[in-house]
Every structure is written in structure tokens, then in C-alpha cells.
Amino acid sequence: MFSEKNRLLGQIITSIQKMSATNIERLCGAANFKKMEKGDILVHQSCEDHFEYFLLKGKCRNLIRDADGREVTLGFASGLGVLTPNIARTREGNSLVEIEMLGASEIALINSNKLMELMVEDEEIRDWGNTVMRQDLQRMMAKEWSLAALSAKEKLEWFRSDFPEGEATFPHIHIASYLGITPVTLSRVRARA
Length: 193
Known about the structure:
CATH superfamily: Jelly Rolls
Strand content: 15-25%
Largest sheet: 4 strands, antiparallel
Shape: globular
Structural class: alpha+beta
Radius of gyration: 17 Å
Number of domains: 1
Number of helices: 9
Order of helices and strands: HHEEEEEEHEEEEHHHHHH
Low-confidence stretches: none
CATH architecture: Sandwich
Mean pLDDT: 95
CATH class: Mainly Beta
């Protein structure tokens, strides 16, 4: 019998692509679960990281810090979803990003090597993993294009279409960083919208 956490993880898995009950059980069986609080760091930038992360409940952001400690928000997640895949957020086994919880959250973790083994063993799991990567790449490219091509007003409109509840969910200072604009500019654009 599936626990509530396994049921939520199964829901995330099938939201990406249909999968047999057997393979959902295999993925859920490989998972561990972790509760986190607001401000907790799931993974630190430059630290070893060999996991795939699934947000079962809560909200978080991916960020990087430069040598002077300045932060840039790279992405958000809330509700149920897959966080950026390990292969896209690590180099030589170390995280390129920090993942900060923006509220009380529950996370499922699957060792990335174990997931890779399952992908090699089973075509359905391999197709699912490739779909996760493709969706993440499309999301990153849409953001990159938006940051390069859109005005501040258009960036906010794009953010609103991508994250309909985002302004009520995420701190505005992080939204401004994500959009590549100052908090003052974000405030002005929101006031005119």
C-alpha cells in the first residue's frame, strides 16, 4: 500500500508522462523523504550532490551566489514538481546552485545513480527521464530568451503567465532577481500593470 508521500511522488511522475504502476513503484521504492522548514538549504552551492529532488509540498528557489555573496534567483518551484535535474545543476558531482526552502516543505530524494540504473534497465523510465530533461531545457530556454529580449513590463507578463500565483507565492525581491530587474523596477511595473 502506498503512503501519502509515495502517492504524491507518483502523481508528480505521471504528471510528466504516463507510466506503469510497476515502474511508479520502482521509482517510489528508490525514494527517501525529507521535511524542511522555511530558510533551510536543501543543497549548498559547490557541495557534493548526487540526488534528484521532487517537491511534494511547499516552495523553494534555485539560486547562485557570486564571490561577493550577491544572490541571483534562477528558478522557483511550488506545489508538486520536479526540481532541476541533477545533470543540469551539477558539475563533477558538485552543485552549481543552492536550493533554498521558501516555506515548510516536503521533498522526495532519489539517488541520481540509482535513477540512471533504472533508466538503463527500463525504456519507459528512460523515456520519462528524457522527458523531464527536455521540459527543463525548454523552461530554461524560455527564461533565457525572455531575459534577453523583453522589457521589464513584458518580463513581468511572462512571469505571470509562467507562474500565475507567483506574485502571491514568492518574495518580490526574489522575483526581481529572477527577472533580471531591480526590486524598484518590479514595484513600478507592478503599479502600472
